[in-house]
Amino acid sequence: MAVEFTEANFDELISTDKPVLVDFWAEWCGPCRLVGPHVEALATEYEGRAVVGKVNVDHHPNISMRFGVRNIPTIVVLKNGEVVEKVVGAQSKETLAEKLDAAL
After folding, report:
1. 32 a catalytic residue
2. Is 55 within a domain?
3. Catalytic residue among 29, 42, 72, 77
4. Best CA proximity match to 40, nearest among 28, 26, 54, 50
5. Looking at CB atoms within 10 Å, which of 25, 38, 62, 83 has the fewest?
6. pLDDT tens digit string along 67-96?
């Protein structure tokens, strides 16, 4: 199951040597609903190897601003707390897996 990133837990969860995939989304966003199942599947497939989760931009706008998220869905991949990949728009599960694999 994908982690729910919040302003309270975000910095702690990204402070890891594992890659972190963050899906910036909102409930009202149609394309976000297409990406959501991919993120959930990746969370299961990469369990123990990566941290995979979601940030609801309506509930946690400060995290979104920190990463310059202006459109959703936006997927950010972090390695050692630094952005190594950022893609905007609905992406296939395979594309997201490739981005995560590159950070492993």
Report:
1. yes
2. yes
3. 29
4. 54
5. 62
6. 999 999 999 999 999 999 999 999 999 999
In CATH, what number is assigned to the domain containing residue 18? Answer: 3.40.30.10
CB count in 10 Å sphere of residue 16: 14
Report the pLDDT value the prediction gives residue 25, as an integer from 0 to 100. 98
DSSP classification of residue 71? S
Number of domains within the chain: 1
Q: Which structural domain, as residue segments, surrounds residue 36?
A: 3-92
pLDDT for 77: 98
Mean pLDDT score of the chain, rounded to an integer?
A: 96
Amino acid 70: pLDDT: 95
Dist. CA 7–CA 30, nearest whole Å: 24
Catalytic annotation present for 60: no
Quote the CA–CA distance of 49 and 61 in Å, as a whole number. Answer: 28
Record the pTM: 0.96
Which of 2, 3, 32, 100 is an active site residue?
32
In a domain, 15, yes or no: yes
CA 90 – CA 104 distance, rounded (Å):
22
Residue 59: inside a domain: yes
